[in-house]
Design brief:
The structure is a homodimer. By secondary structure, chain A is of the alpha+beta class. In chain A, about 15% of the residues lie in helices and about 25% in strands. In chain A, the strands form three sheets. A nine-stranded antiparallel beta sheet of chain A has the order 13-4-5-11-10-12-3-2-14. The longest helix of chain A is centred in the first third of the chain and has 12 residues, at about 70-80.
């Protein structure tokens, strides 16, 4: 069973025992960096900015940005609090592109939510924004990096910042009008960076991306909507974590992207060390670094 | 129903009517380019180099390279012809990474296949190789592009070429030894370019990537193998298209990456035009350009 695994080193829970001296000098493997992460390097998502979305085949947890796109974040919180998405559907699901959900028929009352939103594709850089640079070229931004767990682009010259369309980005769709987003959301199934600054990303899936990938695709019509409504995937419920009964909450923790260990992780992913790798690329694609997320270890139990 | 679609323009089957003069001068939308593609721009995959792999929930079609990694291609053809994969499983399926299949127990007789293969991570550039350049920076290769439908990297200075780990790449796994690949294959679920030149890619999924994305993930053990064997996904059969009964064949066609229209498609994806887009990036990630694949239109029927 030990043969034929690719990247098994990255998954091993125990790093090889190496001398302290060598550890400090040599580039680290991903497994070694993950071993270094202490409890302080893991943070729980803000329950007021976390959505628990249930579909028949599982749970999707989405964290909303506390830094950017406040209008979109407030809108989706209002919709979720008022139960808007309950009983609606994923109705436009295109493999390799997006899973789009909401009210295909555009008939449901939006309650106190806005009929349309001012675009927040990119924004002036907020004072004191925590931005951890990726540290190499990015094709879609002058500088790429991470803002409190979210992949992002920044243009310091233009005083502008935005969240990036990596896999699991959470955003609102729109029609051709700039300010036409309102209720319909999508989750990217693959990186779609060309959409950066063309739509407003304001969150990301941190748990259950496998559930998103398993949402039924179905046969699309010309606009991409799944023709047969029986192939739509219902949204059973969407709730803010702060409104979810405690016994249904997962004790999720995200690696703190402002930590030193996350900087080490960037380096360990930029050049993959360890016996498995014959070539290092000295390059890291922004969307290649998936945010480490874990269930908080139970005290007294080993991980 | 017309609201809230993202990228609907890319899917629309009818390009806006525009004057011939403007068409020649202005950058084209993806839809306009797809309209330009004539029958000669679509080619059927070589049935001797195409695998039909059936799992309980659908069909996966993999095209093998006719240009690179001949040792690996010959090995998998031998294994497929001798029915090696029939009844084996996808047993290591990690969301966002790979779906790995074969014989987890390493017990099945390999028949006339080799016990291990000489690595073909990269190779000297073959005489007359058709290489269509992507035309912008790539972080993982001096030059990125396409070789007869496959995303690839090339290093002309080192006289070296290789297929790239974009989504749907088909490759053999190995242990830490360079020449240890043999039977176990993986399909990438997301781009994994850091594996380029570290493993041998020798094909890609051209149909049924939605089926691959829906393969059950399950709970992994430390090496990533799905702990509960009941959660493995069986490979019902794997056959070369040339051995598949005609009534079971799909009339698949891939866009010819050596065609002028494919060059136009690269440009249309590098800068997304059309009313929907407010920002063009003048950049295209290699893995962002999914190879257009279609079912050959039936004569007399509109698409």
């Amino acid at each position: 069973m030990k043969r034929f695994f690719i990247g098994a080193a990255a998954l091993a829970m125990t790093a090889p025992a190496i001398a302290q001296e060598a550890e400090e000098a040599a580039p680290k493997t991903v497994a070694e960096v993950m071993e270094m992460a202490g409890d302080a390097d893991w943070i729980a998502p803000n329950p007021d900015s976390t959505i628990y979305m249930r579909v028949p085949h599982g749970l999707i947890v989405i964290v909303l940005s506390d830094d950017l796109a406040p209008g979109h974040v407030e809108q989706v919180k209002t919709l979720v609090r008022e139960g808007y998405y309950d009983g609606l559907n994923f109705y436009r699901v295109i493999d390799g592109f997006v899973a789009q959900g909401g009210d295909a028929a555009e008939e449901k009352d939006k309650g106190s939510a806005a009929a349309s939103l001012v675009a927040e594709y990119e924004e002036p850089i907020p004072d004191g924004l925590a931005f951890t640079p990726l540290g190499n070229f990015d094709g879609y931004a002058p500088e790429a990096g991470f803002i409190n767990g979210m992949p992002a682009g920044i243009d310091r010259e233009r005083d502008s910042v935005w969240l990036a369309h990596c896999t699991g980005a959470f955003a609102f769709g729109r029609n051709n009008e700039r300010d036409s987003a309102s209720t319909e959301f999508y989750i990217t199934l693959q990186p779609q960076r060309y959409l950066d600054r063309n739509l407003t990303v304001f969150g990301r899936v941190i748990w259950g991306m496998d559930v998103v990938q398993a949402i039924k695709r179905g046969r699309p019509n010309n606009g991409g909507v799944i023709e047969n409504e029986e192939d739509w995937t219902p949204i059973l419920s969407a709730r803010l974590a702060s409104d979810v009964p405690e016994e249904e909450l997962l004790d999720l923790q995200m690696m703190d992207t402002n930590s030193d260990v996350f900087l080490e992780l960037i380096e360990a992913r930029r050049n993959r060390m360890g016996e498995f790798f014959y070539v290092q690329h000295d390059y890291l694609d922004l969307c290649q670094l998936q945010l480490p997320v874990r269930l908080k270890p139970v005290e007294g139990e080993s991980e």
